[in-house]
């Protein structure tokens, strides 16, 4: 009986705190019209209308009624959803001084301690310093010579797929992670059980799962609910996220330091920065800043590029005529005496168009990482208050029929000269997929390079076809994307075979374990 009374008192205290929180948020706000949006309820606003998954689809539906700018509230927290590319450019690019910060999200920032990641750091000096290091090493392939490593690891992937095509998903997942670990920490991945790779995979899942606990931001007092309170499980999830964030942030860099000390370290981003930033007295300038930037690159390189390559393979399964055209172009330019090189890129416009269409067709981040306004703003006669969480609906943009006729179809021809009739200057998927303004992804060049070399090498080496069941009927490809903020898709049952014995021999000769 006593525990029940305590639970009731706790619930009442939380409810009172929520009402107070909403009152304080609204107090003093200017009485100016907000952008249109679905009507909410007293106190809680639109909280019950926000789905736990696929918010981008709900927002697109709202857009049919309210337009490309949608304003909602969740217990006093203002949220602005942008459904069109043009509006995102107008606000987030052209007014980047207002729209470049990040909201402070309770689960990843406070409870799991991921707030050090460049992608979560608020706009300011620390963000500028971290982005400086990332831009320096990833915008120019020459600094890290990451092109050579990307090519070598791609060839390793080809050999693994040649030997074990049914498990191609495992080797695709390994590719970006093995490259980024060598780029950032000089760490060579020698097995599928590599501890750093496993921590990266677990961390990507943990980051995705954290998005299921946004209610802690709408109702911040709920974070103080005790473990025994009915339905409470975020404490356990947060503890695992905290363990991963500490391991992810510290273990690779400590290994690098140890190798530097004993003289076994390979040249990479972190070794260069340690050497450059070590003072005469042995102290290291901005050590935590560049280490955090490096760990962010490690996490980013271990996630989105995997989905891009898996999406490419899915697209080839579903569109054999596209696969055939791309292979014909590669045969004409590259021939069959070698594998594609980065130097072939300009002579392979159709393959480049395939890569561009991959980024549009199944957008990897349907909602771009949220931005936050740092001051009040006014747009189209509407007031956008300071502290508004700004969500950019990339999914809706890539399905805009005005820019992309037949948006659900995979059509690389869109990106060839004269490919889209009647459409003037459609937004390129790269401009949507890699972010906006002062938060654009520093690893864009790295990601575009690895997608190109992986796609062109797979096309040159293999035919990808649907598998057939015992009844002789083709097995449908797996296009069941996880509905997370960073989507992922598993492998399909398919038939991957070398295009010739000559190419199989070439793959075996290229890689010597």
How would you describe this protein?
By secondary structure, the protein is α+β, with helices and mostly antiparallel strands. It has one domain: Cytochrome p450 (Orthogonal Bundle), CATH 1.10.630.10. The chain is about 50% helix and about 5% strand. It contains 21 helices and 8 strands. The strands form 3 sheets. The protein has a 4-stranded mixed β-sheet with strand order 1-2-6-3. A two-stranded antiparallel ribbon has the order 4-5. It has a two-stranded antiparallel ribbon with strand order 7-8. A hairpin with a 2-residue loop joins strand 1 and strand 2. Helix 12 crosses helix 14. It is globular and about 70 Å long. Its main location: membrane. Pfam families: p450 (PF00067). It comes from Schizopora paradoxa. Its cofactor is heme.
CATH topological fold name = Cytochrome p450
CATH class: Mainly Alpha
Helical stretch tally: 21
Topology as H/E string?
Answer: HHEEHHHHHHHHHHHHHHHEEEEHHHEEH
Q: What percentage of residues falls in helices of 4 or more residues?
A: 40-55%
Q: Rough shape?
A: globular
Secondary-structure-based class equals: alpha+beta
Oligomeric state, counting identical vs distinct chains: single chain
For the largest beta sheet, what order do the strands appear in spatially?
Answer: 1-2-6-3
InterPro entries: Cyt_P450 (IPR001128), Cyt_P450_CS (IPR017972), Cyt_P450_E_grp-I (IPR002401), Cyt_P450_sf (IPR036396), Cytochrome_P450_fung (IPR050364)
Pathway: Secondary metabolite biosynthesis
Subcellular location: Membrane
Pfam family, one: p450
